[in-house]
Amino acid sequence: MTLSVYAGSNRFITTADGRVTRHSFSFGEHYDPANLGFGPMICHNDDLLDPAAGYPDHPHTDLEIVTWVLDGVLLHTDDAGNTDELRPGDVQVMSAGSGIRHAEMADAASGPTRFIQTWVRPDESGTPPRWRSEHVDPGTGLTTVVGPGALDIGTHGASLRIARLAPGAIVELPDAAHQHVFVAVGGGRLADQSVDDRELGSGDAVRLTDQLGATFEAKADTELLVWDFRR
């Protein structure tokens, strides 16, 4: 059983015209051979875009790309004819498969747009590309937004759960082979039977392996994103 804390202040940062991206793992020019991924997760980016800024048309293959919008409006277009305006509470899953081109741009008429995007390795390569999205209102507990009972993903045993917590609220983390816990907003205390409690702030992440019985207690209004991988 292992538990590792990754402070938000230590994340790799990429800046470009109108955008700032904070990376959890090696990405582009930020290469760290000891930090290439976690389970099937190979990218976990926290993006902040100015109005009309973002990522023009570009390709992907053989990735499950999951996007969760926190603020603003993110405009999605792709070469399969899909278009959408993703707003806070919207989750998108794009299975790149054999190849897809898409663009992600902040709406010019909205304020800054912030979203969390995760790339997960699929079980199979070369499958037909797919795209889907859904609006979700997370409750006080962890709500599954991707995985069994929610938007499907081409990685067996992978789930994304989200909670919006008031100060003092406590959630029990799922038991899984790998868990990635990210405090998108707010902060709190992670408690586990095998280690001392850990205080987490906005932008901090925890990676847990074969960890059982962990809980998170919010100390402020908090938005918590939990990926769990059953294998």
Give a written overview of the molecule.
- With 231 residues, the protein is mostly beta strands.
- It has a seven-stranded antiparallel sheet, with no helix packed on it. A six-stranded antiparallel sheet has the order 1-19-16-21-14-13, with no helix packed on it. A four-stranded antiparallel sheet has the order 5-10-7-8, with no helix packed on it.
- The protein is built from no helices and 21 strands.
- 39% of the residues are buried.
- The chain has a single domain (2-229), classed as Jelly Rolls (Sandwich).
- The model has no long low-confidence stretch (mean pLDDT 94).
- The chain has strands at residues 2-6, 12-16, 19-23, 41-49, 54-60, 64-71, 74-78, 83-86, 90-95, 100-106, 113-120, 130-135, 143-146, 158-165, 170-172, 176-185, 187-192, 195-201, 205-211, 215-218, 222-229.
